[in-house]
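Input (structure):
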Protein backbone atom coordinates (compact mmCIF):
# COMPACT_ATOMS: atom_id res chain seq x y z
CA UNK A 1 0.00 0.00 0.00
CA UNK A 2 1.38 3.38 -1.02
CA UNK A 3 0.08 5.71 1.69
CA UNK A 4 1.58 8.86 0.17
CA UNK A 5 -0.07 8.26 -3.23
CA UNK A 6 -3.39 7.39 -1.60
CA UNK A 7 -3.35 10.59 0.46
CA UNK A 8 -2.35 12.77 -2.51
CA UNK A 9 -5.00 11.14 -4.71
CA UNK A 10 -7.56 11.53 -1.93
CA UNK A 11 -6.87 15.23 -1.49
CA UNK A 12 -6.95 15.94 -5.24
CA UNK A 13 -10.15 13.91 -5.54
CA UNK A 14 -11.74 15.73 -2.59
CA UNK A 15 -11.04 19.14 -4.12
CA UNK A 16 -12.45 17.88 -7.43
CA UNK A 17 -15.57 16.45 -5.74
CA UNK A 18 -16.09 19.71 -3.84
CA UNK A 19 -15.82 21.89 -6.95
CA UNK A 20 -17.95 19.55 -9.08
CA UNK A 21 -20.59 19.39 -6.35
CA UNK A 22 -20.77 23.17 -6.28
CA UNK A 23 -20.98 23.33 -10.08
CA UNK A 24 -23.40 20.43 -10.68
CA UNK A 25 -25.63 20.54 -7.59
CA UNK A 26 -25.10 24.13 -6.48
CA UNK A 27 -25.56 25.73 -9.89
CA UNK A 28 -26.68 23.47 -12.76
CA UNK A 29 -29.20 21.25 -10.95
CA UNK A 30 -30.13 23.38 -7.94
CA UNK A 31 -33.46 24.65 -9.24
CA UNK A 32 -34.47 21.25 -10.62
CA UNK A 33 -33.53 19.37 -7.46
CA UNK A 34 -35.27 21.92 -5.23
CA UNK A 35 -38.43 21.81 -7.33
CA UNK A 36 -38.64 18.00 -7.44
CA UNK A 37 -37.59 17.13 -3.90
CA UNK A 38 -40.41 17.17 -1.34
CA UNK A 39 -39.99 20.13 0.97
CA UNK A 40 -40.18 19.15 4.62
CA UNK A 41 -39.67 22.03 7.08
CA UNK A 42 -36.17 21.93 8.52
CA UNK A 43 -34.93 19.25 6.10
CA UNK A 44 -32.31 21.33 4.32
CA UNK A 45 -29.96 23.92 5.71
CA UNK A 46 -30.04 27.41 4.24
CA UNK A 47 -26.95 28.36 2.25
CA UNK A 48 -25.69 30.44 5.17
CA UNK A 49 -26.12 27.48 7.55
CA UNK A 50 -24.29 24.91 5.43
CA UNK A 51 -21.22 23.34 6.99
CA UNK A 52 -18.77 23.47 4.11
CA UNK A 53 -15.94 22.01 6.16
CA UNK A 54 -18.07 18.94 6.89
CA UNK A 55 -18.95 18.73 3.19
CA UNK A 56 -15.23 18.74 2.40
CA UNK A 57 -14.68 15.91 4.90
CA UNK A 58 -17.44 13.96 3.14
CA UNK A 59 -15.72 14.60 -0.20
CA UNK A 60 -12.37 13.59 1.29
CA UNK A 61 -13.78 10.31 2.58
CA UNK A 62 -15.39 9.54 -0.79
CA UNK A 63 -12.14 10.30 -2.62
CA UNK A 64 -10.17 8.27 -0.07
CA UNK A 65 -12.39 5.24 -0.72
CA UNK A 66 -11.74 5.58 -4.43
CA UNK A 67 -7.98 6.04 -3.97
CA UNK A 68 -7.84 3.06 -1.62
CA UNK A 69 -9.70 0.85 -4.11
CA UNK A 70 -7.48 2.09 -6.94
CA UNK A 71 -4.37 1.23 -4.92
CA UNK A 72 -5.64 -2.25 -4.03
CA UNK A 73 -6.74 -2.99 -7.60
CA UNK A 74 -3.62 -1.42 -9.14
CA UNK A 75 -5.78 0.91 -11.25
CA UNK A 76 -3.65 3.42 -13.12
CA UNK A 77 -4.03 5.94 -15.91
CA UNK A 78 -6.66 8.64 -16.05
CA UNK A 79 -8.85 6.82 -18.59
CA UNK A 80 -8.96 3.62 -16.53
CA UNK A 81 -9.54 5.77 -13.43
CA UNK A 82 -12.46 7.45 -15.17
CA UNK A 83 -14.04 4.11 -16.12
CA UNK A 84 -13.57 2.55 -12.69
CA UNK A 85 -14.62 5.77 -10.94
CA UNK A 86 -17.86 5.78 -12.94
CA UNK A 87 -18.57 2.17 -11.95
CA UNK A 88 -17.81 2.82 -8.28
CA UNK A 89 -19.82 6.05 -8.28
CA UNK A 90 -22.78 4.43 -9.99
CA UNK A 91 -22.91 1.50 -7.57
CA UNK A 92 -22.58 3.65 -4.45
CA UNK A 93 -25.03 6.37 -5.53
CA UNK A 94 -27.58 3.90 -6.91
CA UNK A 95 -27.42 1.81 -3.73
CA UNK A 96 -27.82 4.85 -1.48
CA UNK A 97 -30.52 6.58 -3.53
CA UNK A 98 -32.64 3.46 -4.07
CA UNK A 99 -32.47 2.78 -0.33
CA UNK A 100 -33.57 6.34 0.43
CA UNK A 101 -36.34 6.08 -2.16
CA UNK A 102 -37.54 2.81 -0.63
CA UNK A 103 -37.60 4.12 2.95
CA UNK A 104 -38.46 7.83 2.74
CA UNK A 105 -40.48 10.40 0.83
CA UNK A 106 -37.40 12.58 0.28
CA UNK A 107 -36.80 11.40 -3.30
CA UNK A 108 -38.90 11.11 -6.42
CA UNK A 109 -38.11 8.63 -9.20
CA UNK A 110 -36.88 11.44 -11.46
CA UNK A 111 -34.77 12.94 -8.68
CA UNK A 112 -33.24 9.51 -8.06
CA UNK A 113 -32.34 8.99 -11.73
CA UNK A 114 -30.88 12.50 -12.13
CA UNK A 115 -28.90 12.17 -8.91
CA UNK A 116 -27.44 8.78 -9.88
CA UNK A 117 -26.48 10.17 -13.30
CA UNK A 118 -24.89 13.30 -11.81
CA UNK A 119 -23.08 11.27 -9.14
CA UNK A 120 -21.77 8.84 -11.73
CA UNK A 121 -20.42 11.68 -13.87
CA UNK A 122 -18.80 13.29 -10.84
CA UNK A 123 -17.22 10.01 -9.75
CA UNK A 124 -15.91 9.39 -13.26
CA UNK A 125 -14.15 12.76 -13.30
CA UNK A 126 -12.86 12.29 -9.75
CA UNK A 127 -11.65 8.80 -10.70
CA UNK A 128 -9.65 10.27 -13.57
CA UNK A 129 -8.09 12.87 -11.26
CA UNK A 130 -7.34 10.37 -8.50
CA UNK A 131 -5.72 7.89 -10.90
CA UNK A 132 -3.73 10.64 -12.63
CA UNK A 133 -2.43 12.05 -9.35
CA UNK A 134 -1.64 8.61 -7.94
CA UNK A 135 0.23 7.77 -11.14
CA UNK A 136 2.38 10.92 -11.16
CA UNK A 137 6.02 10.02 -11.06
CA UNK A 138 5.49 6.49 -12.36
CA UNK A 139 7.83 5.50 -15.14
CA UNK A 140 5.13 3.71 -17.20
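Output (sequence):
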Amino acid sequence: MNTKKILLGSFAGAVTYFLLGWLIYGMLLMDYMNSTCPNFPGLNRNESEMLLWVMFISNLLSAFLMAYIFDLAKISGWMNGMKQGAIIGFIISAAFDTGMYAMTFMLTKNWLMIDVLASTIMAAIVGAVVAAVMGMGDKN
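Notes: The chain has a mean pLDDT of 92. The helical segments are 3-28, 30-36, 52-73, 78-103, 109-135.
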